[in-house]
């Protein structure tokens, strides 16, 4: 039985609203929900590519080998994923234990759904879970905001009271409720699950490949982000079954193995850097994304959404 | 020479959620730009798929054959595009004249850029433009809001003062400036251009295939939307040149021809429907997209962005 991201019946838990002036109507008219903002375009923004080019060594952090997951596909394709340790720690620990236990050696990509997700892994029935894997992790769908030094994006969001970045990760947050969560942007990686309270072990993972499916925020454990190689997952025929599942197993894309970089001999170990998000350089990058100024652009937007301000990453020379 | 919006007038007119105290600082801190909203999740929303299933005949409009562009790819792939007549009329008239003049018979898909666009067509130097094609169309990047019966989406947007739908099209708009424009959502089709004042003839077209590149809004002529077959454009290796251009012409994807449905014999002519956006059914659909209620979901977002509320389309039976 494959885990689905999104399927059928009905029930909804609701966030508590603790505003000073709580909205009491359950379903206000659209125009009454809030007062609209006006973007304020910045005229002299620097193009994002220029910001990256002009960045200093100290504007980047190195991805820890313990947080770097390397998936190898048949034919030589490689996908690099950074694990986010601050948001779903039990699931991330599971993913490490699964990698070290050879869970995905081999496995396959068995779902490609246009404008939604690519999913890979092994069904839990297919072999015993390695030692150290928690079989029923808690619902790590959001977390306390305390301890997260969030940089506000500075523009409105269609889903969350606020959005921003913390340690290179895109987050939505609710200061009044005191909760934060990673946002489902293009390239983000999550843990496939069945219906709650099943949260998934981590044995089946997915990456968002289209327009950000933000409705998944706070409904599933997100554990990381593809740093490089997502086109190895997207440049294939879409699955023709419901939800993009690939019917014939011989059309699945073979996964040769998935390892932690920490377990790869240093001479062969790839290495990546992620732009720090607590620097003036990153602020310049966000301003540049919100106010494109290249010769092509006539009119900067004056705003950008959290998933169109993807944090720059790069492979280290020699890595 | 770069031009920027409203040179010398980068004032931010600001609004808040629950108070009416406009900000007037030219370059406010991110957290001061606006007052954040709080989503108000709806507990009893109907799943979008159910709304579609329960819709009535009158909830849909038929795409006019004169506005339906059919692209045929070698191997039998077909891409259907609806042309939007209200936003870039000269460019749309050009596209019709190009189709009728056999401009794309044959042509090719020569650019596939991950998480951005697929582009196809013919370079203007490759053969003479057909009669009736305006060689230098005006900059139809936005238009007057007057005459557009916009349905507000009802949620904040990261780019535009307001967003909504009109006649099935996603739009951003600025009531104070009196301007509206189509938003660059996944699947939207635009006219490739060089540097302004070149706006493109329509001879080269692109479709957005990833997270909505909204920074293109108001910077390029958008002319329509892919109704069906976008996976015929996305399920291919990405171009390896800068901007995703495919280096070797033999790896381009051959376009056999592009025709208007109006010029296809009725017996072979495909037909599509688009959900009307001025109905209670569409409002229920938006509410459902903003408040996913299937058995998978634990927590409805209470909001949705304009590009994650794509207007439903369907091929007509027998069409």
Describe this entry's structure for a reader:
The structure is a homodimer of 319-residue chains. Chain A has 319 residues and is α+β, with helices and mostly antiparallel strands. Chain A has 4 helices and 16 strands. Chain A has a single domain, classed as Cyclophilin (Beta Barrel), CATH 2.40.100.10. The longest helix of chain A is centred in the N-terminal third of the chain and has 12 residues. Chain A is globular and about 55 Å long. At the A-B interface, loops of A face helix 4 of B.
Features:
homodimer, 8-stranded antiparallel beta barrel, alpha+beta, globular
SSE topology string of chain A: HEEEHEEEEEEEEEEHEEHE
CATH architecture of chain A: Beta Barrel
Summing up helix and strand content along with how strands pair, one would put the structural category of chain A as alpha+beta
Rg over C-alpha atoms of chain A, rounded to the nearest angstrom: 20 Å
Residues in β-strands, percent of chain A:
15-25%
- Report helical residue fraction of chain A: 10-25%
Low-pLDDT segments of chain A: 6-33
Shape of chain A: globular
Chain-wise SSE layout:
Two copies of one chain form a homodimer.
Chain A: H1 48-53, E1 60-62, E2 68-73, E3 78-83, H2 89-100, E4 107-112, E5 117-121, E6 143-144, E7 151-152, E8 162-166, E9 169-174, E10 179-182, E11 188-191, E12 204-208, E13 222-228, H3 231-234, E14 253-260, E15 272-275, H4 280-290, E16 313-315
Antiparallel strand pairs in A: 1-15, 2-3, 2-14, 3-13, 4-5, 4-14, 5-12, 6-10, 7-8, 8-9, 9-10, 11-12, 11-13, 15-16
């Amino acid at each position: 039985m494959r885990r689905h991201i999104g399927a059928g019946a009905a029930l909804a838990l609701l966030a508590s609203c603790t505003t000073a002036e709580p909205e009491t109507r359950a379903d206000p008219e659209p125009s009454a929900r809030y007062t609209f903002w006006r973007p304020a375009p910045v005229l002299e923004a620097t193009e994002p590519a220029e910001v990256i080019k002009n960045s200093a060594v100290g504007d980047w952090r190195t991805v820890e080998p313990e947080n770097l997951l390397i998936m190898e596909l048949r034919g030589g394709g490689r996908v690099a994923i950074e694990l986010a340790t601050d948001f779903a720690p039990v699931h991330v620990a599971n993913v490490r234990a699964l990698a070290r236990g050879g869970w995905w050696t081999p496995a396959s990509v068995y779902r490609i759904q246009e404008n939604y997700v690519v999913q890979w892994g092994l069904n839990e029935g297919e072999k015993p879970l390695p030692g150290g894997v928690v079989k029923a992790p808690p619902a790590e769908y959001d977390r306390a905001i305390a301890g997260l030094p969030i940089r506000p994006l500075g523009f409105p969001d269609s889903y969350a009271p606020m959005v921003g970045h913390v340690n290179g990760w895109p987050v939505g947050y609710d200061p009044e409720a005191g909760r934060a969560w990673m946002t489902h942007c293009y390239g983000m990686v999550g843990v496939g699950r069945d219906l709650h309270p099943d949260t998934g072990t981590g044995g089946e993972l997915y990456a968002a490949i289209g327009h950000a499916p933000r409705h998944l925020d706070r409904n599933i454990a997100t554990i990381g982000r593809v740093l490089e190689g997502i086109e190895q997952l997207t440049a294939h025929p879409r699955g023709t079954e419901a939800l993009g599942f690939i019917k014939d197993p011989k059309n699945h894309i073979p996964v040769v193995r998935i390892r932690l970089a920490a377990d790869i001999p240093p001479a062969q170990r790839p290495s990546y850097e992620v732009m720090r998000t607590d620097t003036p350089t990153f602020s310049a990058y966000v301003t540049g994304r919100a106010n494109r100024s290249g010769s092509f652009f006539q009119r900067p937007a004056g705003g950008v959404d959290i998933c169109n301000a993807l944090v720059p990453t790069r492979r280290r020379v020699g890595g």
